Amino acid sequence: MLIVVCIKQVPDTTQVQIDPVTNTLVREGIPFIANPYDTHALEEALRLKDQFGMRVVAVSMGPPNAEATLRKALAVGADEAILLSDRVFGGADTLATSNVLSAAIKKLNEQEEVGLVLCGKQTIDGDTAQVGPGIATRNGYSQLTLVDRVDQVDLAGKKIRVRRKLEGRHEIVEAPMPAMLTVVRELNRPRYPTVPLRLESEDREVKVWNNEALKLDVNSIGLKGSPTWVSRIFSPEREKGEIVGDGLHDPKGTSRLLIEKLLSKDLLPV
Question: Which end of the chain has fewer CB atoms at under 10 Å, N or C?
Fold first, then answer.
């Protein structure tokens, strides 16, 4: 039985640039990492592999350089890595992205039964938390979001029980498999790659599937299949005139600067 882990390559910087013509992310010259939430999904998949002997397949949709992120997944113990890369996939929003990922998971399921699909609760570049539920809906899987603990996996009965982290409380949920889990950081602590696995991962094959392999309607993927459009992106405007003082060596002077600033804005009673 397979566990599929969806991993996204995201920018490792706050200086994100957007192409003003296509309103898509400019990737040139920006360092990228694996989405941090997805690393916890991968770790949980590897723990289930250690416990039940399930195979772990890491899947990522992105440009050719996303192969580096998948090799890191191989270096910590993933059995297989698949990169979904094609120009027609470019510029995808969450809807078009989930279309491609769900099609890839269906293709994997034709080769070997998929029992679980794991991904992070959201990505740090988009923060939409929509792709995981989108995959679950398109593939008809049980949808378990915000998972912070996996309590039980019953492979014979094809059931899974997890704990969900909600606002102010936890929820225990049991659901049939196959299931899609989106996980939070509290779930585990990702492992580090061993030296042998790191060296081995450099020679491992990262399979590349384009749209010829998935055979998706081009109007349902990429920019053409994306109903949402970024009309404008900008940094919040900050009011100039910050207070600069030395609170360590001149606490009274710094306090005076702060009080004068508040008084000038009518924020203190006089």
Answer: C
